[in-house]
Structure formats: structure tokens, C-alpha cells
Amino acid sequence: MRLGDFGSPGLSPHDGTATEILAVEPIDVRTMMNAAAAGTATMSAAEGAPRLERRKRLSPAALAVANEKVRRAYSTVVISGAVRIVDFLLLTAVGLTLYLWYVLPGTSSFAWQYAAAIVGVAACAVVSFQAAEIYDVQIFRGQLRQMTRMASSWAFVFLLFIGASFFAKLGDTISRVWLSAFFVVGLAALFADRVILRSLVRRWAREGRLDRRTIIVGSDQNGENLIRALNAQDDSDIQILGVFDDRNDSRALDTCAGQPKLGKIDDIVEFARRTRIDLVLFALPISAETRILDMLKKLWVLPVDIRLSAHTNKLRFRPRSYSYLGKVPTLDVFEQPITDWDMVLKSAFDRIVGAIMLILLAPVMAIVALAIKLDSPGPVLFLQKRYGFNNERIDVFKFRSLFHDQADPLASKVVTKGDKRVTRVGRFIRKTSLDELPQLFNVVFKGNLSLVGPRPHAVQGKLQSRLFDEAVDGYFARHRVKPGITGWAQINGWRGEVDTDEKIQKRVEFDLYYIENWSVLFDLYILFKTPFALIKGENAY
Prior knowledge:
The chain is of the alpha/beta class and 541 residues long. Helix content is 45%, strand content 12%.
């Protein structure tokens, strides 16, 4: 059994209006995203002065939580993977150092059999530690438990190695002193590594970097049961911030198992943009399908995990259908895109490739800067407010292409063909997208842009009199990942001036496709195709 799908997410995160549910079918993320991107335009906003901020009001309880200082979270998956790598490298270094110090001076040449044995022992140790379940962040916080498991696993690996050497008749070729020293020194190194790791993990835990900041949807008896079940677990990484509910009658409790009610469902989007939210957990029964789907229409644009608690549901699925928060079963609805090692990989790709591009393109950027300076008075670079990850406002570097006295840092007026504000050099660099090159500084030094991703639109970007999020349903879903200098929409021709509904809808559609199908190879393909797309110069003025 699967959750029902719904039609295009008909909610602008700010205006709170919703469209009808179109269908009840098996859920399909791609279909839903494409339907959202192709949704009909909402009612146009009232004309008037440009609005710099369009924030919803939150309750005092929600504001108190949102105003708390929150540090950036660390991925437990990445931490566990990094510890595996450190263990392997540490044991390899110990074995090799002991061989070079004790065994090699008494031999005529380097014995590659020792090198193979060292790598094999280190690899088997990591596998054995994994089998002993000591690569868990909760285990890292303890002392005696992980030390005893590690010592027994390390001893097992050496007994396995000694047995393999005996049956292979290699006992005479392996130094017993080296083997004994490898066991003792290797174990001591592992213990020292775990003491340091324990200190780091405990500090990160105190800082809240390992907590999964969670909000509960459903302030009723089901919500109370779920919160109590989560709080009853030892060493839980779930930090419950509060509950939200869309009801105003007596069914919605003001305090749910000691947790305050922070607001309604419509407030969650704004709340998640003011503070770090990692998980939205529904405490509603599956039978409340209509309510759940209506809420998901509003929340899927957020870069968070969304799960449905199965703790109180009488309907039971196969165990493999569940993901667990400790012992509490849940059903995954949406997952945050590009997380854990994917995020590390993409970040490393951006910084390394971005730095190489910055070095290679430095002469071109210098020539452009000189041309701008000679063409018209004013600074060479300027900062423009754009939408970044999770709808945050970021400052993006660009080469100045407009006359300085007609600069438009908020891009409240779209540059059109033959625009008198554009300088002679500006017209050329906009046509060729050379004005975007300084955004490499954002990628390499500030880290608030990627090389590839949805293009960061200006905060006052408009289609006629409507802001983009008012013109396209689900527009803010493109901000679930970090924006990029180039993207899938741009190489498919959807760049430049936005003067029709189709142009902005297609941009969103292609951006959502990229988010769903991201990979490093996809990024490389887009980077490779970008110069060819720029040669065409379509829609860029």
C-alpha cells in the first residue's frame, strides 16, 4: 500500500492560497514536481511599491524557537564514513611503520607480501568493526562499550590472519615480533583515536550539531503518543522543537506532551526558513489521507525530510517498508535532496573545479574588468540580492553591465532588448554571460553558490507585475538545493528575459528535474554543454 499522490502543489508559501486536490494515485515524485512546475499561474499581486520582505507572522512560541542560535548540522553518515577511512589509514600506517623500522633493515629488498598483509589486515579490521556495530555515532559517545568491542574485533582479525598464515605455510616468512607489535601498537592507536573521537562527538552533541531538529504535525492524542515514544528512547538524536496543527477547535492541544503548539501548517514554511529544521514528522493516522495530502502540498517545497509516523497506525506494512527513528517506525514521504556524502562530493567538486576555472579564466576576467572601467564610470563589480538555498537572501557577485547611476541591485525591473540602461560593454558581456564569471568567487570563497544548479533569481524578479513565486506554483521547491552559475534549464534554452508564463514555468520544470536526477556526471555534462548554449546567445540582452 502506498500513499496517494496529489496534484500540483497549489500554494504560494506566502499567500496561503491552495488549489483543489486533483487526483488520488500512487505517489510519484517526478510526476508531482512536473505537475507543480506546469501549474497554472496564481492571481496577480496588487501593483505598488516593491516589497523587500514578505514574511508571515509567527506565534510568540515559534519566534522564541526561531530566534535561538543554531549551529550548522553535521551528517552522522559522513562522520561514520570518515571514521572508517581514518581507521583503515591509521592501521595501515602503523603496520607499515613497524615494518620499515624493524623488518626492512634486516632484508635485502622491500617485501610486497608484508604490504599486502598490512592492507588486508586493515581492511578486515574495518569490516569486523562494522560487524560489531561500533561505527555508530551513538556508540562513539560511550567509552567502555566501544573499547571492548574494538579489542575483541581486533583480536579476532589477528587470529584469522594467523590461521590463514598457518594453512598457507607462511609462518616462517612473517616476523613474530612484527606481528605482535602490530597487534599491540595498532590496538593502542585505535584506543587513542577513539578517545579523541569521543571528545569531539560529545562536543558536537552539546553544540546541537548531531541533533535532528524535528517538528511534529498533529497536536492531539496521536501526537502525544508519538512524542512520548521518541522521548523514551535512550541516546536519541531527535530534538523536538514543537508541534503544528491546522485545527482551531478543542481537538488541537495547546501543549502536546510538554511541547508547545507553535502554529498552523501554513506557518511551517516560514518557520523552517527562520531556523534549521531537519525533519517534519506527521503524527496523523493514514486514514486522514485528505488532510495529509493537503498539508504535503504546502510542505514539499522545503529542503527537509518528511515522514509519516506509523507508531499509532493499526495498519501494518512489511518491516522493510519502514525507516526507523530508534524503535519508532515511520514511512518516508519526501527526502532532502543531495545530502550526506553526495553533499560532500558536490561541495568538493564545486571548490576544486571552481578554483581551476577561476585560475584559467582570470585573464578573461581581467580584460572584461578593464573594458568596463574604460567604457563607463563606476565600479567594475556589484552585488545583487538573489534567492539562495532554502530561500535565503544571498549577495551574488556580477560584472556591472548597467550605467552606475541606473544600477538595479534588486533587479526590480527586468532588462529587455534594447534597454537604454545597458552599457556598450554590458550588452556584450550579458549576451555572452561573461557578466556571470565573478560568481566563481561565490562558489570558491563564500560557498553559497554551486557551479551547477537552479539559477539564483533576483529577489524582486517579476513576470509582468507578479513575482515569480506568485506566477508559478511550487516555485520555491527549486531552492531545496544550492543555486548554481549554470543549470539544466539554461543549457536547454531557458535563460535570459522572462516575459511569458511558459518561460518561468519551464525554468522551474527543468530545475526540479535536475534536483531529482542530480549526479556528478550530470553536473559535468551541464558544464560541458554550457559554452555551446552560450554561443547561441538566445534570450540574453
